[in-house]
Amino acid sequence: MNMSDKCKTHVDSCRFCWMCHHICPIGNATGHERSTPRARALGISLVNRGAIGLEEIMDNIYECAGCGACVHDCVTGWDPVMFTKEVRLQAALEDKLPAYINAMVDHCLDEGNAYGKTVLCETLSAKIAEHKEKTDTLLYLGADARYMACKQAVKAIRVLEKAGLAFTVLADELPSGAQLDFLIGAADETKQQMLANAKVMDGFKTVIVYDPTDAKVMKRTYKEYGVETTAAVQTYTAALAALVKDGKLVGKKADKTVVYQDPYQLARDLEETEEARAVIAEFATLHELHLNRGETVWAGNILMAQYMPEVMKKVAARRLSNVKSIGECAVVTACVSEYTALKSVEQSEIEVLSLEDLILGE
Ligand code: SF4
Ligand code: SF4
Known about the structure:
Helix content is 51%, strand content 8%. Helix 3 packs across helix 6 and helix 8 packs parallel to helix 10 (150-162). The strands form two sheets. The chain has a four-stranded parallel β-sheet with strand order 5-4-6-7. Strands 1-2-3 form a three-stranded parallel β-sheet. The protein is built from 20 helices and seven strands. It is globular, with a radius of gyration of 20 Å. It is α/β, with parallel strands linked by helices. It has helices spanning 5-13, 25-30, 37-48, 58-61, 69-73, 80-93, 99-110, 122-129, 143-148, 150-162, 178-184, 188-201, 212-224, 236-245, 264-269, 274-283, 302-305, 309-325, 336-343, 355-360; strands spanning 137-140, 206-209, 232-235, 257-261, 285-287, 330-333, 351-354. One iron/sulfur cluster is lined by residues 24-26, 37, 64-70, 80-81.
């Protein structure tokens, strides 16, 4: 397999040890040794040595969520996310992607989202139409919210309305490139999507990004891939925290105690942990999960539920059990995808809320 020297070094230097074994949310959900980062490195190493074919490890390569818990915990500084992404790119170039991944890549290229959706729900379309006028500020909703969680997208808009902010929402929002980046890494097609979206963003002074996955890509990956934008990119959580601080988003503190589920994209990739907490503290009493901020445990997402739904439910159920284990009964998320994953678990003991649910009291 054609792999950069940097990635080969990381694969060969990974000691296949136990240090990050216990913190992988996928490995913990499946209980399979093969799902752990060390097993993935071992598999790639075997392909690099010609012992097995690339196609033999591809399902395993797509079991990784890219949550970065292993990178965070690797005391020797090796990066399983980096080498996993590079293998995805190489598999795409060698036409060795699994069929279920190929289908999602095709949807990203043809319809602009991995789900192949083309129509928004009526309520969201109507709400977006209320914000079609050009302003200095763009609210970027992202594919998951627009096509898979439209009620949350509507609420995200309503929260900014409640704060009296003037903002635009695009009916024909372009893909950020985040889904393609997950599926095939730094391919030309990924960069083309990012460049096209950055050009649209240039038309605004500020872009508030609702989904942390898109925010991470726009604030970090665009720079890594040489994609520039003149717009100031702000996470939705940072925007809400600023509105709270300025007295524009004022709450009646509910008689409710919650814990906060840090999205890894904010906590680890963007090192943003306090903004959502400042917002929550305005509307509820905040307690902490044992594994919080940079130590957060990912709670699942919508995209991977398309091809491993049962594992995603187990990932989410495990995170809910973390909430229950400390005697808490409500968790607030700031990621629409994690919110959807947590909501998909059939249970009644833990209340799952988005930041918008908390702010709007719904
Ligand atoms: S990434 Fe680091 S902690 Fe994880 S198995 Fe490799 S060397 Fe060990
Ligand atoms: S990035 Fe997350 S899902 Fe992937 S191997 Fe590391 S801990 Fe597991």
